[in-house]
Amino acid sequence: xxxxESCFMEIRLWRELLIPYELAVKxxxxxxxxxxxxxxxxxxxxxxxxVTGRVKSINSILEKMxxxxxxxxxxxxxxxxxxxxxxxxQFCEDIEKVAALIRNRSDMRVLEEKDYVxxxxxxxxxxxxxxxxxxxxxxxxxxxxxxxxxxxxxxxxFWATIEHSLQYKYKGNVPADLAGRLTEAANSVLKLDxxxxxxxxxxMDAQKSMLH
Length: 212
Ligand code: GTP
Ligand code: MG
Known about the structure:
Layout: H1 2-41, E1 50-55, H2 58-67, H3 75-78, E2 83-89, H4 92-103, E3 108-115, E4 128-138, E5 141-153, H5 154-169, H6 176-211
Parallel strand pairs: 2-5
Antiparallel strand pairs: 1-2, 3-4, 4-5
Helix pairs in contact: 5-6
Bound molecules: guanosine-5'-triphosphate (GTP) and magnesium ion.
Pathway: Purine metabolism; ppGpp biosynthesis; ppGpp from GTP: step 1/2
Organism: Blautia hansenii DSM 20583
Protein name: RelA/SpoT domain protein
């Protein structure tokens, strides 16, 4: 009976903790989707192609706390991706445009930026990460929380999604031959993004010269 009650208490504490994060993810996803809509309504090209978000599962938070030796008290300061938003762009040059849009907003404050686009990780992973501080307003009042925003192209996202599933399948120990092929695939993704950008700029140049 006592065990059951303490379990309920723990679930209540987790629920309470995660409410502002759930709110923040919903707010942020909605705001970025509205930015995309606003571009389209003004007949402007939108650097935002897709937006998704998630609140990290309690299991994943617990695993990360254990791996990084983070206590309950340190949790909200040290685990910065409890709230996660992913913005997918068509072209590599859109990533910087999205980052600039975020830097210029007054409803979120950029705390940290990590550029894995110009300098990919050894795994082959490429993406632009921003940690922002965002004010979530719940019944309990205002709360500043951290959220991780990942910005990447469709091609980078394709690679990261497959690589993530393989890491999951092999519990982080992907066989060397597969890991090698993933690195090669990452190089192909880089080339694909470059080629798509070239095609786009040639098309745009052609359109401009037709207008003159
Ligand atoms: P953590 O927050 O503990 O992950 O450490 P960190 O802050 O140094 O992480 P980093 O900014 O490098 O990465 C944070 C997130 O990026 C991860 O949770 C993943 O979603 C993603 N990521 C980083 N590296 C990889 C990778 O090699 N493959 C894939 N698929 N995703 C990655
Ligand atoms: Mg991190």
